[in-house]
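discrete fold record:
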Amino acid sequence: MATLASNTRMNKPDKERVVITGVGLTAPNGNSLGEFRQNLLNGVSGVKAFETRYFGPTIAGICSFDPLKYQKRKELRIGTRAGSISIYCVHEALADAGIRIGHDITSDRAGVFIGLTEHGNVETENEIYEISKYGYQTKYWSHYHNPRTVANNPAGEVTVNVGITGPHYTIGAACAAGNLGCVNGVQQILLGEVDVALAGGVSESPGTFGIFAAFNSQNALAHHDDPTKASRPFDKTRNGIVVSEGGAIYVLERLDRAKARGAKIYGEVTGYSYNSDATDMVLPNPVRQAACMRQAIERAGLTPADIHIVNTHATGTPAGDIKECEALRDVFGENCPDTYFNNTKSFIGHCMGAAAALELAGNLASFQDHIVHPTINVDELDPLCMLNNLVLNTPTTVGRVDSILNNSFGMLGINCVLVLSKFA
């Protein structure tokens, strides 16, 4: 079936095929694709002890990229953390792709499409804290607050910094946002709105104490004496989510354009799907998750057995991990001997809007090296999370990797699944 799918793609005109030609990222355990991948193979966690206003000591995944690499100090004062993460990732992605805006492409033919879990919470909390020092007098409220908190802020900051005059917007899709940002990029290219899409997801979530307090009130905030072991999807003793920040942005373009300029190609977006549970505010619906996976696989012209890596969404919550595993067993069953499952959140925590985009990036190299990075911190596998070929604690080398399925599911029942295939 994989050969048939490859032939189907080959029969499509190059202008109808979308490929990844550049990657820029920052994660709690790496500020480049190479560093990130190496740390995933070496079992290096990016989760650390963290303290936040009002809430106090906790655990989080914090990035260490240099924002001054592409911004001036004044721009940092005016802008947002999400904007800085986006700007860093976009510059790194463009450099990786060998594209200069205004030289290799006109500025109006590039677009920015960034997935977010939420935006504005950090800035609003900061402003309230600042005016609390002055008796809550609102005359001390920053006049930059509005541009900092509009929903399109991170994508908009990128256009201002880079000089992109094509379309930009953000996609609010909870924890499915990273995948959905990429999907929007693909769609905008195929619609002819842009020639190059800068697409993915970002998160500044640890900047707000509210997200820690909220997960804690749900009994869903991870805790562990060793922060590096706090994020433990599928483990029997898992106790919740590690809140993290990060970002991953991809350069997407039509295959004909990529070929014409001799670009390196990381992979081809061959399928995707997004749907809704319509059942609960928080608890996932495995039936709808399974439907989303099946449609993405079908659109890619594949069968479940043709998928060689499934990067799971599992966040480390007791119920959420079990529900996803139910969906995975339903889709992949017992007849997919070459399908392997892993999880990236065990290394970096939950990067919210950036999660899916970062997790896809962590598996890109598998097309070439055939190594599946593991899920770490699984000391005792929960029997209800049992999956055939679940890669635990150490990397596994497999015979071939032709297609990767990337799961992302979010609150209010939003699901988005992306299938990336080896370029052929």
User: Anything to note?
Assistant: Residues 81-97 form the longest helix (17 residues).
